[in-house]
Amino acid sequence: MAAWIMSYKYNLVFDGPAALQRVIEKLRTSQAYVGEGDGAIWLKDQKQSTLAVYDVRLTKLDSLSAWLEVNFRSLNLHELFDDSLAGANLRCFEDGDFDDEVTLREAFRIKN
Q1: 36-73 confidence digits (pLDDT tens)
Q2: Quick check: is 75 in a domain?
Q3: I need a surface site. Which of 5, 38, 66, 82 has the fewest CB within 10 A?
């Protein structure tokens, strides 16, 4: 019987296509990269022992936006993602609701 995973989803809007492409390239070459499919990149925090195929999934929607799905809280994956932004601006909307903007830290379920 498969375990049910509570995931959190966010619409990420980047300040330019180069920023999104840079993030995708950095994630693909990271140690957290475990594969991809259906236009999505799958990442796992290697220090956690979750049974899920991926802990975080990023799916590119267009040149400026992507869906981020976070299955498990991960400071390591947050830092990887944050570092890959390299100063680019990013807006993060929970469940794609443009009235519900959160920080990337909140999206990765990181407490202060």
Answers
A1: 998 899 999 988 888 888 999 999 999 999 999 999 88
A2: yes
A3: 38
